[in-house]
Give the backbone structure.
Amino acid sequence: MTGFAVEMSAALNVVLLLMLVAIGLAVAHTRNLLTAILLMSVYSLVSAAWLMVMDAADVAFTEAVVGAGASTIILLGAILLTRGATARVDWRAMVAPALLAVITGGLLIYASLGLPEFGDPSSPANAYVGRMYLERTGEEVGPHNVVTAVLASYRGFDTLGETVVIFAAGLGVALMLGFGPRATLAPAPEKMGDHHVVLRVAAKMLIPLITLYAFYVQFHGDLGAGGAFQAGVILAVAVILYGLVFGLRETIAAVPVKAARSVAALGVMLYAGIGVICMVNGGAFLDYDYLFSPQVEAMIPANLLGDPHEEHHWGQHFGILFVELGVLLTVSSTIVTIFYGFAGRSIDAEEAKR
Amino acid sequence: MSEFLTHFNYIAVVIIMMTGLFIVFSSGNLIKRMIGLALFQSSAALFYISLAKVTGGTAPITLEAASEAGRALAAEQVPGYVAQHGIDGVVYSNPLPHVLILTAIVVGVATLAVGLAIAVRVREAYGTVEADEINAVSRIDAAGLQAEHAP
């Protein structure tokens, strides 16, 4: 006996998953790389819709921003530098991979029948630690968004690791492709009435709004879906949009290459530094309850935010705020650095041709 | 048939995962392989999120407004279900897999960029991103080196 909303969500689940399977098969079928990249963008958007049906609001947000936005731009930058469609593959060369995929898939499906039923609330994954986070977040950490609480506080060390990985990946791209263009960029020729004028006006109106939205997403991560990872990518997308419409030279004037790479390091330092401050004050690494030493707590007027040891969790609150700021800085400037790497490489390649 | 319905998500995830695996194995183009890898990675995300879903659950955000919708959902369940599995009268989906996948998606795009940067460098060194042609160029280079060092 289930109600209308539950039935609808079950139906949406099946329909959206079938769409994802179809898009995946289309990606495998097409030989045109541009088609494949745009199909992956559609895939991300559909999977974001599916993630909303699965109650994963934060993940849906991330997938929409990253999959449909950032990774499409990076893939397009890569095919600009490598060019061409994929070579025709002889059908006989496809038999072995297809056979392998079918056999492995069959075994995995057979094994998946032993998994708990879909939506089972008492499955091992849902019954223990996940439920504990839901029960205790209110009194131990504070944010209404349990995902933010787990991300930044309970599993803060894990998230620090992820932030370092993102920083290291940005560094790897920069080491392979350069931090930006080597050639000094000539100013774009001024043309009256060129056909990009509509694009420029629209971009000029959109970019401040996108930036503002990034900060809204950043600071409302405690209350609703959103947080530093999404906000960082949105902020980077605003910079990339500026670069696509107004040219790389103007973008580098606004966000210098050196600033982007320094801020990426600064974000990781801020995150790890918060952890060290907690250790200095006698707690464990990233234990925000020890973020403020007793002397600092005594200095804060008692009526400012209520009793620090009641339900307001000052340490947790400010710890999450600073840590998310570190993630925002690292994620946004890493993606901008990656964009500079790909864009600068293509400009240098064109310079070399002349 | 009932097993097909209760395990439909896992079957769909496996099909998407195998599509990604097939692209990685069958395509010689390095960019296409990275796309296949991205598809494979995405299927892992779909699997985690499928495991986290709780029937009649709502997003793990405990704000009052969200709880209203959650209570409406909970009201549709059989009596006793919410009392057993819910918290304060609302059933939530599991937040932990959401956290893991949220960060994994952003790490995924950063590592995708690293793979593509390698492909760009390969193209600069070999003039192609097709695995077969890269192997051919390598063989020609190796043959040339052998001829140089031959007595």
Q: What stands out?
A: The two ends of chain A are 72 Å apart (CA to CA). Chain A touches chain B through 113 residues (CB under 8 Å). Residues 129-354 of chain A form one domain.
